[in-house]
Design goal:
The protein is α+β, with helices and mostly antiparallel strands and 181 residues long. 20% of the residues lie in helices and 43% in strands. The chain is built from 2 helices and 11 strands. A hairpin with a 3-residue loop joins strand 9 and strand 10. About 12% of the residues have low confidence.
Amino acid sequence: MKSKPMDMRYIFCLCASLFFLSLSAHSQSYQPVTDFRTIKQLVDSNRFEMVFTIATTHHTFFIQPDTPYTDQNIRIGQDSAFIQIRDSLAIGYLPYFGTGYSIPQTGSRGIVFNNKMLDVVKSIRGKGRRPSVFYQFSVVGKNDTYKINLDIRYNGLCYIFINSLHRSPISYTGQIVKGSN
């Protein structure tokens, strides 16, 4: 009988090791893209991926007239927030930290979508050594409809601004990456 708890601990340790090994392999599969020509080719092909590491809440109203306007930057764990563009399809998961929530809205309550993009707009902004790509679309998600504005900078840094029908605006900062397709 004493060997069963030992066997269970061994199996648990083995499973935990495999789980963390798969997570580290997944996070190592991303390579940041820092060359603007490559970024432009990826965006023009409509096959690219972004990972995000910072969320910024935007409070759209004041509780009291003298309350200062403050945004809050929140660190996001690696591999916890992403958007993939695959032709006309947008797939994304972003945890939500908005006004009126004391804990983050994660899992199915986060910003989740896997649908066809609507009203797509792409353009190059800026000239010279520091251009950026502006990419805008709307997508219907699991719990809401989102208007998404992407600003992909010359060095691969990405800013995403999200407005929805039922939640306060939020933005994220991350990187365009070459994923393991």
